[in-house]
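User: For documentation purposes, I need each entry recorded in a consistent format: the amino acid sequence on its own, followed directly by the corresponding structure tokens. There are two entries in this batch. Please keep commentary to a minimum and don't merge the entries.

Assistant: Recorded as requested. Entry 1:
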Amino acid sequence: MQATVKWIDGVMFVGETGSGHAVVMDGPPEHGGRNMGIRPMEMLLLGVGGCSSFDVVQILQKGRNHIVGCVAELSAERVDAVPSVFSKIHLHFVVSGHDLKASTVERAVKLSAEKYCSAAIMLGAAGVEITHDFEVIEV
């Protein structure tokens, strides 16, 4: 895996992945930014949510479940020190579909958390408390 991060000005950077996708990162005005992009730590949080969501959707689809939506609502806490690392991350999955069983969704979330989500497992190994819950919406 490859990526580049190019400084633009102030505290704005453009990150480009090896697959050719780009994203703007910037800071708030009080840190020299113009608030024109997401913060690097927000990128990390989105990575955890994207990684885990990918797993949950794949597991449910492979089990031939009829899902029509999956939203991961993430909340995180950071320590009040430098570096201001994450201390806690909570993922709340809202999975919608037809005839979904709560036990099936619970299993998918658990498999992602314990076996498949590289981002969450890596952060957990570094001491971040990561928790998950879910709700199922019948549509």
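Entry 2:
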Amino acid sequence: MDVTFEGTARELTTDYGVLRYHEAGEGPPLILLHGSGPGVTGWRNFRGNLGTFADHHHCYVLEFPGFGVSDAWGGMPVLDAGKSVNVFMKALGIESAAFIGNSMGGVVGVNLAIRKPALVSKLVTIGGVGANLFSPQPTEGLQLLQEFADAPDEDKLVRWLRGMVFDKSLVTDELIAERWEAANNPDALETGRSMYGSAAFEMQQQFMASSDTPPYWSMLHKVACPTLLTWGRDDRVSPPDMALLPMRTIPDAELHVFPRCGHWVMIEAKAAFESAVLAFLGR
């Protein structure tokens, strides 16, 4: 099976622009949703896992609009991401699928499970879902992300990357160069500012203080599908206390915490993560 970038790359033309994705494997559908941050793509999040999951599932790694790969849709990045999943599934005739969502991708998956439960058969999240109960907000990792969004430079990118992992040796010169090049894409820069810049963060806080709209984490009890919450014990972006709320309020949720692991569970605890996820999906 060819799980190279070129061998799996696909394009889907929609009314909103071109969605790009990677496809591999046969079996029940599994859609993988990437997180946010400088230079992020679905391919970079999941390229190391795709071969393993494609041995058991028909995998789709979707590139969200506005992160420099798929065309930007011009709206709020998280809302556009959720909308793109709906458009993507409808276009490809996928009536229901299991999902793996990294950080922001997990939030997108949770919101989909709340609002359109028929689309989500099972859900795996990687950090990021819930609310800070004991840890400060913004967390250390989000503060580093905010510093980069306000005034991007390579040193800030390196500090943020090192904050994503427990094992700092994973932040190689090759990774830094790859992420720095991708982070300078105009769409990616604009998305970063709109999500994590100081001005955007202040507007979000004001909106939350004045809005009657409940936060998504207050509706986690509506997630009806079996859910596996995965977390790095040493996550400095979304510390493990965030997991307590979804673990308690999602009716059919279980939590797996990986030791000596930061925010990128699928990369830093690759073999253990894949084993836990395949066991969960295969039940």
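Summary note for entry 2:
The two ends are 25 Å apart (CA to CA).
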